Every structure is written in C-alpha cells, then in structure tokens.
C-alpha cells in the first residue's frame, strides 16, 4: 500500500504494475486486505453503473468525518437518487451558463493578483484556491469570500491542508479505522486533537452558514441574483411540495460538501495545467496566440467551446492529472465483473469475467486507465494535448461524461458539478494565459512532484501542497 500511495512520484509503481500484470490485478492492503486494482474500461463502466457496488469503507469514513449525513455525497440508495434529482437543477447546462459573467469577474481578479506577484518563483496554489472558493461561495450562496469571514477562510485552508496530507501513519490509521465499528469511529471523532478540532470547526461553520443562509432566504424571498440555494429552496413553489423537493435542513446540509467539492479539485487542476504550460513553452505560445485570435474576432461574448487548443489542453490536463486517481468501491453482494479483454490468471487460465464476493474492495485505477497505451496511444505517459486533435485519444464507448475520461467518474455518482467545472476552467485558463506568461524556476529545488493524498496534488520539495512558478505579465508577443 505504501508503494501505491507514497512513491516519490504518483504512479511510479502503479503504472509499472499495469504494464506487468495488465488492467486487472490483486494487491495486498494493510492487515492482509485484498484489493482488486481495475483499469479495464468495461470493468470500470460496470462497477460505476452497477447497483452491486457502493462507496468503499475509506470513502465512507472520510465523507462521514467531513460532511453532514444528509449531504448527497454521504447519501445512499433511494435517498441519494432523490437528492441528486433535486440538486440537478443547479448544475444543468443552462444553469451553468448563467454563471459565466461571475466566472469571468473572479478569473480577471485572480489574473490581477498574479500580475502583482514578484518575478521570483511563487506558489500559485493559494491564489487559485482562494479564487475558486470565491466562485463557489458566490454561485451557491451569493456570498463573497469576504462575507464568509476570515475565520471561515482560515478554517477552509486548514481543512484542505488536512485532506492533502498523507503519511504512512495515516494510511495505517485509515486501515485500522476501516475495521472499527461505526460507533467507535463516531466516538473517535470527539477526541480533543488538533486534527479533529479543525474538522469539528469546519462542520460547525458549514452547518451554521448553511442554516443561516436558508433562514435568511426563506425570510427575504427571491431577490437579485439567483444562486443554487435559491433554486434548491425553490422559494416560489415551496408550498407545493414537488416530488423531489428538498427540506430546508437538506438544503443546508449540502453547504460544507459543495464548498470542498467545488473548490479544491478545480484549483488543483488549474495549477497542474499552468505547470504543464511552463514545461511546454512552445505550446503555451500557441495557446496564447489562439486566445488572442479569438479576442480579436469576438463580436459578442467569447465561445470557449470553439477554441480547439484550449479544449485539447484542458482534456489532456484532466487525463494526466485526474483528481480521483484511485477511487474505492465495495461489492455489496456476490457479483461478476465483465472485462473488455481476456486476462491470464496466476494458474494460466484465460478469463473474460471476474467473480467477486460481497465485501470485496475494488480500487478503480482511474489514472492507470487514463494511461492505457491501447486506448490513448503509445505515448500515453506524456503530456501531449495534440492527441485530442489528431485522433490518437480514445474514442470508443463513452465512459465518463466528458471526453471519455473518468476524471469526473461516471454512473449515478458522476460529479454533479462537471459542467460547472469545465466552464470555470475554460474561463480561468483563458484569463490567466491570455494575460500572463508562466515559466519554471531555474532552481531544481523548486521542482514539483505529484502525490495522491485523497486527491492528486502537486507538492513542493518539503512535501507540502504547492506549485512554484515564475509569473510575468504579457506586454505584446
Ligand atoms: C476539476 C474539477 C472537479 C473534479 C475533477 C471533480 C471530480 C469528482 C469526482 C471524481 C467525484 C466522485 C466522487 C465519488 O464518487 O467518490 C465527484 C463528485 C462530486 N462532485 Fe465533483 N469534481 C470537480 C468539480 C466539482 C464542482 C465545481 C462541483 C460543484 C460545484 C462538484 C460537485 C460534486 C458533487 C456534489 C459530488 C458528489 C456526487 C454524488 O455523490 O452523487 N465537483 N467530483
């Protein structure tokens, strides 16, 4: 497990195992736990869509530790379906399009902040993280980061730092926790340690903020900018009790989860993208030229979907850096997983289906799937956006909601905010890259590694999350 989670660079062992053993193999976890590592596309599609699998124990524990019981990420079965159906209203293509002016304002402000940085290598992650927090709080609650208050923002930073720390001790602790009965796990959460204090404070802040916002909205009625909570509360039709309508408590319970889910993955993806642009200065120039071309030819607003290089670049960043590089599921009954290609077992038998027993933990190896040479080309380990333009990228049966990638996963638990994320990312890259140039620091000690700590993150030499880049404003190229 340590080789899987704590190599110097994420995937150092996992990608080799995939080459050696193929897209399905068994791995021994802590205390003899048996994990099935899966990157076969048909198997992944099956696990994601079958009701024979649910979140595995590690995800369940993390979600119940961080978020409210009634939030969509924690819910299961019929309750999950009802919450999803109700929340969809805030994340449709048209609802997301309404956010465009806001995305553009926040991204412009982030570009201004980056412009002010000295030319010395600087960590860009905090600026990106603050900007995406600002977007999510305005879209969900119509509140700016300032309105949330300094204590909230500080606690948000602490909770993200906590979520992105992964040590051998923590991996072991998690393995132990998975075996604890639920009541012991709940009791452990009340321990007076710094970690649990931060988590309790975060939950308290989110609950208080969610309940206050819902109360104020119910009292004030709908006015001015309509945000996601307005839509969920559906103030105008509250009395009619629509089939999927959420209660006020259920709306408030989504607050903390939406803040974390909507902020961190987006900020990290932006950081990885800018890092790759710094590593590929020629591509960065071509991308900027495309942006300036569209700026010069816009008659009304910018249509980001029409920019080929920008979208190829975003897809490649999502492919190489999927936030959920490893996603855990557990079989809730005996079942069979079909495979796209036959594999040889340790006894030499060729099989095209795998029988799994109830309780089997399946690791969906998303990062490995994104690097299968049979699907993405022989150079699948390289960052090469042009694969999306020259037909190399996998175009087979659709897996995820976007570009056949599993960065947003798929099936009934597919990321609720994927359209939101794509538009936000398009706008941010456009604003930042059309106005600023990103370069790698000369000093090797500033180099960045990739680690998996609940999500895929860039880390500095000291092991902390961050990405050092030299940023300078573009005059005329
Ligand atoms: C690059 C950005 C993003 C990535 C890579 C990403 C990825 C994911 C992934 C992999 C999951 C599935 C987790 C699981 O089942 O264990 C997920 C779930 C979720 N995401 Fe995202 N996400 C992103 C942005 C967003 C945004 C912007 C929002 C909201 C505004 C959002 C809201 C959610 C919610 C609510 C869920 C839970 C869905 C459920 O359990 O039914 N995400 N996301």
Automatic annotation (TrEMBL):
Keywords: Heme, Iron, Membrane, Metal-binding, Monooxygenase, Oxidoreductase, Transmembrane, Transmembrane helix. Heme binds at residue 415. One of its GO terms (cellular component) is membrane. Its cofactor is heme. One of its GO terms (molecular function) is monooxygenase activity. Gene3D superfamilies: Cytochrome P450. Transmembrane segments: none annotated. It is found in: Membrane. Pathway: Secondary metabolite biosynthesis; terpenoid biosynthesis. InterPro entries: Cyt_P450, Cyt_P450_E_grp-I, Cyt_P450_sf, Cytochrome_P450_monoxygenase. It holds the Pfam family p450. PANTHER family: CYTOCHROME P450 (PTHR24305), CYTOCHROME P450 12A4, MITOCHONDRIAL-RELATED (PTHR24305:SF166). Belongs to the cytochrome P450 family. This is Cytochrome P450. The lineage of its organism: Eukaryota, Fungi, Dikarya, Basidiomycota, Agaricomycotina.
């Amino acid at each position: 497990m340590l080789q899987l989670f704590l190599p110097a660079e994420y995937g150092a062992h996992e990608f080799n195992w995939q080459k050696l053993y193929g897209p399905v193999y068994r791995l021994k976890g802590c205390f003899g736990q048996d994990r099935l590592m899966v990157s076969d596309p048909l198997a992944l599609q099956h696990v994601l869509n079958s009701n024979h699998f649910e979140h595995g124990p590690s995800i369940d524990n993390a979600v119940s530790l961080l978020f409210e019981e009634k939030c969509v990420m924690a819910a299961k079965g019929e309750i999950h379906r009802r919450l999803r159906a109700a929340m969809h209203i805030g994340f449709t293509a048209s609802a997301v399009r309404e956010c465009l002016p806001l995305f553009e304002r926040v991204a412009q402000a982030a570009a201004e902040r980056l412009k002010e940085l000295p030319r010395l290598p600087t960590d860009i992650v905090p600026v990106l993280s603050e900007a995406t927090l600002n977007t999510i709080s305005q879209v969900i609650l119509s509140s700016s980061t300032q309105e949330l208050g300094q204590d909230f923002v500080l606690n948000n930073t602490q909770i993200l730092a906590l979520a992105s720390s992964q040590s051998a001790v923590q991996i072991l602790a998690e393995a132990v926790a998975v075996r604890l009965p639920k009541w012991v796990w709940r009791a452990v959460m009340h321990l007076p340690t710094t970690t649990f204090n931060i988590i309790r404070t975060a939950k308290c802040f989110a609950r208080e903020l969610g309940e206050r916002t819902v109360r104020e909205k119910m009292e004030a009625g709908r006015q001015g900018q309509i945000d996601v909570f307005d839509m969920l509360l559906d103030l105008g039709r509250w009395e009619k009790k629509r089939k999927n309508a959420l209660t006020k408590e259920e709306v408030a319970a989504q607050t903390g989860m939406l803040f974390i889910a909507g902020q961190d993955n987006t900020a990290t993806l932006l950081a990885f993208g800018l890092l790759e642009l710094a590593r590929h200065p020629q591509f960065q120039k071509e991308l900027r030229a495309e942006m300036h071309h569209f700026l010069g030819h816009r008659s009304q607003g910018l249509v980001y979907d029409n920019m080929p290089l920008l979208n190829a670049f975003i897809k490649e960043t999502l492919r190489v850096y999927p936030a959920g590089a490893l996603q855990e599921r557990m079989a809730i009954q005996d079942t069979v997983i079909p495979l796209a290609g036959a594999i040889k077992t340790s006894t030499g038998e060729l099989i095209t289906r795998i029988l799994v027993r109830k309780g089997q933990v399946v690791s969906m190896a998303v990062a490995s799937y994104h690097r299968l040479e049979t699907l993405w080309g022989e150079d699948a380990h390289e960052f090469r956006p042009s694969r999306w333009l020259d037909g190399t990228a996998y175009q087979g049966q659709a897996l995820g909601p976007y570009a056949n990638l599993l960065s947003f996963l798929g099936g009934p638990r597919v990321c609720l905010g994927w359209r939101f994320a794509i538009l936000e990312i398009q706008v941010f890259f456009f604003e930042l890259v059309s106005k600023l140039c990103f370069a790698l620091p000369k000093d090797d000690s500033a180099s960045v590694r990739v680690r998996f700590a609940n999500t895929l993150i860039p880390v500095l030499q000291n092991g902390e999350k961050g990405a050092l880049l030299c940023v300078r404003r573009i005059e005329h190229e």
